# Entry
Amino acid sequence: MTIDSKTEIKPELLRRLHRIHRQRTDLKGRIDRGPKQIKAGESLVTQAEAATKEIRSRLTKTTMISDEKQLQLKSRETRIDELGAKLNTAASNREFTTLKEQIAADKQANSVLSDEILEVMEQMDAIEIELEAADAELEKQQQEQEQRIKDVKVVLAELAEESKRVEAELSSVEKEIPSNVFPDYKRLTDSKGENALAPVEGESCGGCYQTLTTNYIDRLRMSRLIRCPNCNAFLYTPEDLRVK
# Structure
């Protein structure tokens, strides 16, 4: 049904209903944003935790490498001392020469190893600085998330109260809808929300922009119940359109 030539309904009533449904839609959107904001904050905290964990893992691995190299260095130094002791008791020139070559080779290897240890320690220093920054970022994100949750709870409580008020107003205004119209109105608003109603803009439906015939416009001006032939919305005239 697009035109009911018998049913009259005040445009003021439809305007009020549309305004309230728009408020409901806005409130629902704002209420839905609360959990989304918290979830987005949780994602930031998770990312910061992952970054900290990755850096800490790199630091642990680098520390292990440094410890291993330190052990190698100490082991070679012990060996050099042992070879030095043997050098003093060498039984022949050949043994003496062999021991000196071994000592020289170990000292050269230790020199290279010492450079490697220095490089690894520098890496550890850089990673520790990186970890310190990551820990600070994690703490910042956690604090912001705690505050975000508190703020959202406050806003949601306020919106819940506003939603109750709007629902009460809607229930009151809906009592003015003609009984023969209410079932269709309820079915349409339950499925389409605020899009179940639309103002006439110029000579078109304000919801889907379907051009309306003169017959539709004339009946609207006479406060007749009109439904858009395209989107089926309940049409109403804006305040600047008067009955001629």
About this structure: The chain has a mean pLDDT of 92. The CA atoms of residues 198 and 235 lie 5 Å apart.
